[in-house]
Amino acid sequence: MSARNAPGLPSATGTAPATRDTAPATRDTAPATRDTASATTDTAPATRDSTQATTGTARTAAAGARTRVVPRGEALGGLLWAVWRRHRGLVRAAVVLLVVTAGWLLWLRWAMTDYVGARDLSGCSATHHLDGCSAQAQAAVDHVRTTYGYQLMGLGIALGTLMPPLVAAVVAGSLIARETESGTYRMAWTQSVSPTRWLAATLALPTAAVIVGGGLLSVLFQWTWNSVDHDLTGLPWHDAYVYDAIGPAPVARGLLAVAVGALAGLLLRRTSRARYAAVLGGGLLAGVVSVYVRPLLMPRLTESSPGYPELDADAWTVESGHMTATGGRLPADVCDGAGVGDSYQACMDGRGVTDWYVDYHPASHLWPLQALEAGVVLALAAVLAATAFRIMRRRHG
To answer: Which range of residues forms the domain containing residue 333?
Structure first.
């Protein structure tokens, strides 16, 4: 018997119709699958178009951000703010020093006027004893000079002598040389800020501090100095402790210190070296102006007499000596080695000496001298500042 006809076994050919029946169903789902794939394929261009549009927008925005030119005023204003933020410690220290010095001057004025006003010190002087001044009054004058006059002298030294070198050292070391030495200035140059504008913004901070702070302290010092008779404090107008601390002198010297510091910082580019050079250079220039230029800014007046000429107490004696009959001038110590008495007189007669002479500036020359000296110092500061900017342009464009 054949296995195909064996009773009780399923027929192999009986399953064929069922298999054939499922084939149409499978074929029927194929169009749906193709339709779905076609739809998916159709959406791909739209997706690519959207992606390309988004990418193009992003690239355009990025390009716009890269090509945006920062306005000059905006960049400079931001740089000024950055300079102030970076050096705010120095600014705070300067403000504290300004407040303390101003307070000291105000207190000193009140103390001097209160002490002098309670006593009759007319006819007295701190530099020499006068017959009309009692011993008690002279003791009070000596107290005024040693207690208040010395404090005023110290403040004059700080304002007129020590402040300019301090400003020069700060500008040369902390503001210029340290920035170039560490390379932090390059960060500002990448923000659409040119090197010369960076230098201008950096120097704007000390320049403003000198003009505002120096001007205020100069006014306060002069107000305090004028509150009592200058004979009581022993501080005449031509004394360097006073002259360098009143009027436009402190401001002019401070601006010269800024220029000296900027030039030293750019040339040396090392913090310690720039500071030393700025202090020495600024001090040398200030000394030359005070000793050699100041006396020659205005024509001096001359007094002559057989004895030593008597001048006003507030006159500034620039030069004195002996005068011959022909108008020649001899040093005051020309016969000091001849001894005394007849020998000294014989020396004087032998040289033809007839009079003493004194070249001097009266008190009325104070403000003209101040104005002329301030002009000279400011012109020198302008030359040094222009040199600093020229060096910056030549090195960095």
So the answer is: 316-361
Q: Is residue 373 part of a domain?
A: yes
* pLDDT surpasses 80 at 332: yes
Q: How many residues does the chain have?
A: 397
Between the alpha carbon of residue 177 and those of residues 199, 202, 262, 265, the distances in Å are 12, 12, 9, 5
Which string of DSSP letters, residue by residue, matches 337-374?
GG-STHHHHHHHHHTTEEEEEEEEE-GGGHHHHHHHHH
* 80 and 224 assigned to the same domain: yes
CA atoms within 13 A on the CB side of 96: 6
316-327 pLDDT, tens digit each: 999 999 999 888
- The residue among 248, 216, 257 whose CA lies nearest residue 369 is 248
Same domain, 158 and 99: yes
**Residue 158 sits in the same domain as residue 130:** yes
Query: Residue 86: is its pLDDT beyond 50?
Result: yes
For residues 112, 113, 116, 118, the Cα torsion angle rounded to the nearest 10 degrees is -130
Q: How far apart are CA 119 and CA 136, in angstroms?
A: 10
Integer Cα distance of 10 and 102 in angstroms: 121
Q: 87, 202 in Cβ contact below 8 A?
A: no
Average pLDDT of span 5-26: 42
Q: Any idea which of 59-68, 195-204, 219-228, 355-364 has the lowest mean pLDDT? A: 59-68
Do 262 and 383 belong to one domain?
Answer: yes
pLDDT at res. 16: 41
